[in-house]
Each structure stands twice: as C-alpha cells, then as structure tokens.
Structure prediction request, 459 residues.
Amino acid sequence: MGSKKVAIIGAGVSGLTSIKACLEEGLQPVCFEQHDDLGGVWYYSDDVRPNQGAAMYRSLITNSSKEMMSFSDFPFPKDTPPYLPYHRVYTYLQDYAQHFDLKKHIRFGTQVRRIEKTEDYNETGRWEVRTVQTGNSDVEQKEIFDAIMVCNGVFARPYVPDVPGLSDFSGVTMHSQEYRTAQQFTGKKVVVVGAGNSAGDVAAEIAQVASQVYLSLRDGAWVLPRLAQAGMPRDMMLRRVLMSMPEFIVNKIIKGEANARVCHDNYGLTCPAEPLKHSVMANDEIGYRLVTGQVITKPQLSRFTQHTARFEDGSTVDGLDAVVFATGFSLAFNFSDKSILPDNTEDLNLYKLVFPTELTKPTLSVIGCLSTIGAHPPIYELQARWAVRVFLGLSKLPDKETMLKRVRSDKLELKQRFGYVKLQVTRVCQILIYEQYKLKSRVYCYCAFNPRLTPCNAK
Prediction:
C-alpha cells in the first residue's frame, strides 16, 4: 500500500503529525482544512470563524510545558520559556510544517462534507470523500482514498448547559469560545461557569476589570499552579514512579500541593471527588483573586431571571450583567455516519483510542480523540505512526470481538481510575497511552548510561 492516498481531515496538531507520518512511510497524504491556515485551535482570530470549535483568547498560556508538549523530533527553540503564550505554539506549528514540508499537502479552505464507503469497500477498504470549498456549498467534489485519518479534534461544538430561565436573562451571554479579552466586562458584575482551565483563566482575567466576578462550580475544583518544587514545570512530575503509586497516595500528594497554595475549604473549592477523578484547574492567578475577594465561588446555577442568577444553595446574584459559560465542548463528526463515529464517547468504540471497531477494514483512524493528564502532541504523534503502520499491514488488528472486549475493558478501567466526567472525552494519562502501544522504557539502560532520567521512567 506504499503508494496509496490517505485523506486527513483537519490541519491542527493531530493533522500535521498525521501528514508527516504518512510521508515517512511513503503514503500520499491529502489534508483537508476548512480554514485558511493551519494550527487548529492554536490559529487565533478576533472573531469566531464559521464552523470553528475551540478558540484562543489573547492571554492564553499553555498548561503543558515545552518539554512535554513538543514533537519527538522537533524540539522548541532553546530560548523558549517553559510555558508559552498561544502565539508561540502557533509559530512552532508553522515552523514544524515548514521544516518537514507539510504545507504542500494541505488544501486550505476545503470542508469535508461526507465520507462514505465505496461500493468495493469490502474488498479494498476504500472511501469516497466529498468536499466543498468553504463558503461555497454548491460545488461538491468527490475523491477516492485508500484510508482516512480523522483529525478534526475533540473541541468541535461548544456546550452550554440548559439552565432554566437562561432565555429570560437580559445580560450578555457567551461561551468561552467567544471570549478574547476582558475589556467588555469593565465595571460589570459577571458569573463565570465552569471548573476547568479556561474557567479559571477567564474568571481571573475578568476580575481585574469587573466590579465583581462569581465562579460557579458544580462540584468544586482542584487548583494547581503550573510550577512545582524548585520551579519545575508541574507536568514534568508525571513520572512513571508517581503514576504507579496507589491512588490514595497520588491523591494525597495532589491535594497537599493544591492546598499549599490556597485553602480549598476556605474558598469554596473543595471537591467531593478525589483529584484523579475530577478536573484539575491549572492556574497561577485564581488563588490571588479569591483571597482578595475579586472572585467569589458559588455552587451550581439553578435558575436565571431577567437580572438575577440563583444558585443551588439558594443564594442569588442580583444586577447581573453577564455570564460566561466555560463549560467545555462536545464531539461532532458531522461528515460521518453515526454508526461509525457517534458524537458521544459512551457509544464511540475506538480500539486503543484510534480504530472504530464497527469497520471490517482498518482503513479509518481517529487521531487525538482523547483528553490527557499531560500534553497532547506526543500522543497524537504516536497514534498517527501506529495508524499508518496498520494501513500498511505492518501492524495487525485483532478480530472485532477481541477489539470490543478491549474497548469495554479500557472504558471500565478509565472510569474506575479517573471517574466519570460528564461531557468529557476519554481521559487518560500519557503513561497509560504509551503502555497501550507497548512502549516501555528500558530502565536499566537509563541506570547505566543516564541515571538522571531513571526516576522519570521507573515503574
């Protein structure tokens, strides 16, 4: 299959590394990107683009350090700080594409409308891909591909909870997808809803100019700064030796780190769930906003009226000017039959988080449909390389029954280990992903030749 064509949907992080993986094995990648530039969520624009999923706000800083989020064969420049503003990640992706000559394989301004099996799929495993030029849906083009790599990301459709009375609220309502700067909230009274990284960022930034900010948390939030002991990036603490410890020890360590910065009980942050079973908010500013009263925590919203927000504990915020929902995103595979790629993780069965188990031919893969404890790019890179090897027949998938059994087992294990977080994609630890693909460090080699790395790899 060395000269066959592979369609890649999306030119974000997972799409770029998929193009490269195809080229390395002699395949012909054709990447369809609906927007006019690469980068996916890292491509900033002042306004939400048509059909855009997640978007950058101007103050965004990465939650993963440069060492953990770089591709394996393309490190960040030496003068790069440990954590990066979004525009430096965008520049990094541009440099990556230029260095490996990836851009010529991308068709910008091209939207995939539909993917369907060809008539001879049972023999060839081929797919028909129908596309249109963005903004011109009248002219449709059809092409046949030998395989498809779905790289449209997990942040496809903004999710806003159905709070009673929201339609009656007369103030500004927006999703964090639309948020860019705090300027429009100057002197306003604002509720921010959510417990993730974006919620913390938005609340802390708006608090600098607003008259008052309220952070509505359904189940509290574990807040951790980006830096750990001695200024080490916190995500570099995700070592095998740590993640192989009993859960109660890991949870105790995380809670100790969180409360060392701000007492969660005193400021309404305490979660009923342990840290490994709940979203963790990586934020360096929210603690200061809480202790100065610029941000006040509230429980889950229960109702809106024209000018008021009511919460589950019966408290209210009157004279409310705006509400920002930093409540995440849901999946959307609008171009695919739902029997193959459903829009919810409960029904989406991906063997090793890549191959749909419903297909009789392993010629469609999904790259990057996960949420990790750690950085994403190295995992996407690993998934893309493995998918290409499967396309080529260099790696074989087991039969459908075996794959389904593995999928069910993996889902159960992840729920038991990390809990069920509503509307969140499959949540895994980087180390667990590496082990799924049978990548284990040779610890004794590290002991002999590079002892400093041994603690990072010990199991």
The chain is about 25% helix and 20% strand.
